[in-house]
Amino acid sequence: MSPRESGRDEHGRPIVAELGRAETPQETADRKDAAREKRRTNQTALNLGIATIVSLLAALILVFAVGLIDTGSRIEPVDYVAEGAAAQQAVEVPLVVPELPDGWAANRATLSTGSDGVTVWQIGFVTPEGRYLAIVQGIDANASWVDDQVRGEPADGERTMGGMQWQAHDRRDADDIGNVAYALVAEAGTSTIVIAGTADDEEFEVLAGAVAKELG
Fold it and tell me: What is the pLDDT of residue 130?
């Protein structure tokens, strides 16, 4: 059998079919370099793919963990009833802590005294429709305090809600309504009660009714 028939040349080196002869030392070195480069490229692509998948999984976990897939009204719930009980220890005037139906959630419940000397109990709610409504109770409040709560909007009439008479302040046509598109104001003893927010009339009525029942 001749060397070529055995697959090797006269020096015993393997014959490469594509060349019809044995590789030169340079060709062997080039082939090995090319193979190493291909392995590195494949490994880089694999690593990139793994990193992309890990990043996507991490993003999905984060999305579900922080609740970004919702209707845009993500809140940190506050137990406003417990906060109200604690705040009541600091004041003699009964604080308004209404009982509301399912779907209402509080994200704020604070008692504070401003530079004007008015002690304020405030509960902020996210309504079942994802809008904002707040109860602001000012103890021994003055006209300036009320004006600030309604953003300077004059009363445009009275409304009866929950069996109580409220002064209505409608800012829905204002250029910048902020969190006070509409407000209701009523007096209860030494307290001034303001209900203000961006909800519709139906949700205002629910909250006003709950407040009126609480004041009973």
Answer: 94
